[in-house]
Structures are given as C-alpha cells and as structure tokens.
Amino acid sequence: MKVALDRLDLRILDELQRDGTLSAEALAARVGLSKTPCWRRVMRLRKEGVITGTVALVDGAAAGVETTVFVHVKVEKHDSELFRVLDKALRSLPEVMEAYLMMGDSDYLLRVVVPNVAAFERFMTDKLHRIRGIKETRCSPALRRVKYTTQLPLEVSGGSRAPARTNG
Question: Are residues 136 and 70 in the same domain?
Fold first, then answer.
C-alpha cells in the first residue's frame, strides 16, 4: 500500500538511507525541523511500514564473503502452490540475498553470495538443487561489483538529491 509522503518525509527518508545512525537531533537539523516533530514523523513512517528496519551494511570482501553469483531458475510447472513452496524455501536460504519471481526466460532470479566457488558448489548441490519443483538453473558469476546501493531514488527538493553514498 502506497503511503502519502510529503517533502519533509522524503527528506527524512533520504537522510536516514544515507546514515541510519543519525541522532534525532542531527536528523532534525539536516531536514530543518525541531527534534520532536522530526521524531514523530520517523515514528509514523515506522508505524506505516515505510521504514522497515535499520541495519549495518557489511563489506562482504572484508568479512570473507565476496563471491556473488546470479542464478536463473526455471520451475517444473507454473502452479501457485509450487510457487508458495519455492518462495518459502528460497527465503530460508541465508546465501540467497535477493530472490525475484520473474517474467520471461527465467521463473526466478537469485542473487547468491558465498565465500568462494567451492561454497557456491556446496550451496547448489546441497541446498538449491534439493528444492522440489526446480527444473533447471543457469548461473552467471559476477566478476566485480560496479555499483551497489541500498538507497532508493526518492524525489526530494524538487527532484534534486545529494549523491548517494555507495559501496562498490
């Protein structure tokens, strides 16, 4: 459900996407509000489900998890019960960072992140290929990440926005 967001809401979201550790005072100063009204807006955005969480972004290479492979999955048949089973199974795999039900040549597109190629082979053999209903997989290993951001392109201040902080 789309939530009505005004210019100040968008500025708050933009700042929090850039730095989720901002104090209430610092956030209020950046968006031009006093602390209490700014904090009320943040709480409303959480309650309405616009802000779904606050996390620390971890550099995969520094943590030893640096191999990314995109996996295209075809299913045996297009059946709503099979899709429910597959959705649940894919959500349970920690190596699957993102999973999308697709239109076109593949039924699912997965972004899988593992420490190395051997770990990817174990993931495919011991986990993914054991899921009922998967007919075929096609893998595309990433050579290097060119861009990565979690910051949504929100329209703030008449369509202009400050450059996003990216990791890549």
Answer: yes
Q: pLDDT for 137-164, tens place per residue?
A: 999 999 999 999 999 999 875 544 444 4
125 and 81 part of one domain: yes
Per-residue pLDDT tens digits for 38-50: 999 999 999 999 9
Say whether 129 sits in a helix, a strand or coil.
helix
Locate the DSSP E strands across 43-104: 67-75, 96-101
Average pLDDT over residues 127-138: 97
**Whole-prediction pTM:** 0.86
Q: How many domains are there within the chain? A: 2
Are residues 69 and 21 part of one domain? no
Radius of gyration of the CA atoms of the chain, in A: 20
The alpha carbon of residue 31 and the mean position of all alpha carbons in its chain are separated, in whole angstroms, by: 25
69 and 38 in one domain?
A: no
Query: For a pLDDT cut of 70, what percent of the chain falls above it?
Result: 93
What is Dmax (Cα atoms) for the chain? Answer: 57
Q: Tell me which residue range forms the domain holding 126.
A: 60-141
- DSSP 8-state class, residue 124: I
